[in-house]
Amino acid sequence: MGSTKLLVTLCVLPLLASSFCSAQLSANFYASSCPNLQTIVRNAMTTAVNGQPRLGASILRLFFHDCFVNGCDGSILLDDTATFTGEKNANPNRNSARGFEVIDTIKTRVEAACNATVSCADILALSARDGVVLLGGPSWTVPLGRRDARTASQSAANNQIPSPASSLATLISMFSAKGLSASDMTALSGGHTIGFARCTTFRNRIYNDTNINAAFATTRRAGCPASGGDARLAPLDNTQTRFDNNYYTNLVAQRGLLHSDQELFNGGSQDALVRTYSTNGATFARDFAAAMVRMGNISPLTGRNGEIRRNCRAVN
């Protein structure tokens, strides 16, 4: 078996994805074919995030939900049609996935500069990084060269994206299935230092969990009734427009908004790392950036697989 064929075969196996598939991606992939790509993405993201800081979190979440369903292949961006069922209406995405218009804007500008060259999957990967940076978080070099899926899987989106009700064991298992370690999971969960969650995702926690600060629960109940008001928002941490380590400080104080957040600090295997991140923002930033690269390496389509979509919402 030739080395290229071997690499493609290994990339199908999620446990090996992070270590092997990155070899197929390159930070310089578009250096000659679309040299202004990163500037185009950064400028559009700057406009979007300056106008609505929440979009940095929304696009980071889109990238996470893309990568966890058959790899980082842009499948989450595909619209449903009469003959095609995408991932936008899967339970983790319905009424909550947002930021698609920003990706559309960037794709239009990229196509104008270098048509039929840059994948939507790569645009999403770059946009997620830039959103974090624009909110004060770390930067990292994004490996590029992903191609876009021609398919999507609503069932995989329903089953492979961790729920906000997940236990620690479930979180560790679901990240492990994608080739990511428990420490990667704890670092990546720090993405919840920005953005908001809907009442329906944290109602059970604030009314029924016991490992929660009483004053915090009372505050959150004021904006999230025991029934109704599912779409009401609460910030995931108390500095929701700044990418910092307050998420972990909140966990130590039993102020995690989601059940799955507080599971990271609840007498289990991740307590020590959460404590470290809560007092050392630089360590968190470094680990988050490295884990984002590993997540971005999950099962990319490369070479002749997939396509370069002209419109991120539809297959060519």
From TrEMBL:
| Entry binding sites for Ca(2+) 1 | 66, 69, 71, 73, 75, 87
State any single GO MF term.
Answer: lactoperoxidase activity
Query: Per the similarity annotation, which family is this?
Result: Belongs to the peroxidase family. Classical plant (class III) peroxidase subfamily.
Give the EC number(s) under which this enzyme is classified: 1.11.1.7
Q: Where in the cell is it found?
A: Secreted
The protein, known as? Peroxidase
| Xref: PROSITE patterns | PEROXIDASE_1, PEROXIDASE_2, PEROXIDASE_4
Binding locations of heme b = 192
Active-site residues per Swiss-Prot or TrEMBL entry:
65
Question: Which positions does UniProt annotate for Ca(2+) 2 binding?
Answer: 193, 237, 239, 244
Signal peptide segment: 1-23
**Gene Ontology CC, one term:** extracellular region
Which source organism? Salix brachista
Q: What does the UniProt cofactor note say?
A: Binds 1 heme b (iron(II)-protoporphyrin IX) group per subunit.
